[in-house]
Amino acid sequence: MAVYRYIPNREALLADVNEALIEQMDFELPAGVPWQQRVEAWMDTARAHFVARPHAMAQLGSAESSSPAWMRAITPLLETLRDAGFSQESTALGLVWVARLTIGVLVQEVCGSLSEDHLVNSLSSLGKDQMKPWLDLVPAFGELSDESFFEFAKVQAVSGLSALLAKDTRARRAEGR
């Protein structure tokens, strides 16, 4: 094939396509708003992009390294945490926390929705004894949605980051800075 003259194999071609998809992410975060809103905006952008293009999540990186496009995509989040006054350690931890929380929730979202039907279908493959602890939760799953769960995840992400920033602030005060 002519395309393989420049791209060594099918996997490399797919990697290039998915890298281009990640590059399309627009992480232009709102200026002049609190860091918490910027973090939530980053998470919302990632969700909108990856729910529409779930296959692109496979190209975020490998065991050896993250893809260049993903590194560029998380840079606005890194800058948001630095600008908010997080220490280097808390910036690193917060960056990983938000990125992994976001992608982890999105992987679960694209693999199966939070719905009563999804739970019932999942339970149908279990035996009666394995199914029993779940049965009283079926109606509660009917009240959940992917949107409401993602909102919950954003609140938890910001809450965790706020705790890190408070710890950093206390440490700076103790050091007299």
Main attributes of the structure:
177 residues, Tetracycline Repressor, domain 2, 8 helices
Topology:
Layout lengths: L9 H14 L11 H18 L15 H17 L3 H24 L4 H8 L4 H4 L6 H6 L2 H29 L3
The fold-level CATH name is Tetracycline Repressor, domain 2
Q: What is the CATH superfamily?
A: Tetracycline Repressor, domain 2
Share of helix, binned: 55-70%
Strand content bin: under 5%
- How large is the count of helical segments? 8
Structurally, the number of domains stands at: 1
Distance between the termini: 63 Å
Shape: globular
Q: What is the succession of H and E elements?
A: HHHHHHHH
* Secondary structure: number of strands: 0
Task: Classify the secondary structure makeup into a structural class.
Answer: mainly alpha
- Which blocks of ≥5 consecutive residues have pLDDT under 50? none
CATH class: Mainly Alpha
Summary, kept brief:
This protein is mainly alpha-helical. The protein contains eight helices and no strands.
